[in-house]
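Narrative of activities, Objective 1.

The group set out to show that a structural description can be obtained from nothing but a protein's sequence at a throughput compatible with the screening campaign. Below is one input-output pair from the validation batch, recorded exactly as produced.
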Amino acid sequence: MKALHRYGLSGRLLAAAAVTVLGTGALVEAFLWPSSAPTSAARPPGTAAAPSPAGRPDAVAQQIGSAPAPPPSGAPPRPAGSAQSRTAAVPLTARFARGSDGGLAGYPATVTVANQGAATVSGWTVTLTLPRVTLGISDVEGATVTRDGAAWTFIPTAATVKVGPAGSVTVSFRVSGAALLDADPTACRIDASPCQGVG
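Output recorded for this entry:
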């Protein structure tokens, strides 16, 4: 009986030691071995998880309300509200013409302002230079005129300020003074361009 009791007690001690070793191994494995379950990134409260892109058509890849794609690299920015294409205004032209029924005291003349472009042009300035300060300009129709020495500047009236596409307006006036010789203009400009019919 004492032998059985001794062996029985020893067996119980060995069993208890084995359980202790196995339990310690399980704890070590739990701390050192990473969990195989996938972890999800932390999300702010109240936000839904993003759907998986797998199997989603490209047509719905961009969420509604997302920012538009940026312009291609190197493309110049387009001003806000500007049209895709715009007809550029063509510079106006002008032609001076001397009338044929002049006399010793002067002669009639016209300056015709023309628009060869496809867009209406609003506003223009014609400067006419006479050869002598003793010559004058009078009876002006289609413009108002100011003088600076021998240079005369014509500004359009409300009726002639706009020149439509492929259209023209005419300013008529009279050059007065000793106009028998050397009375033709020596220079004429419309805006920054020279007039035709002078020089």
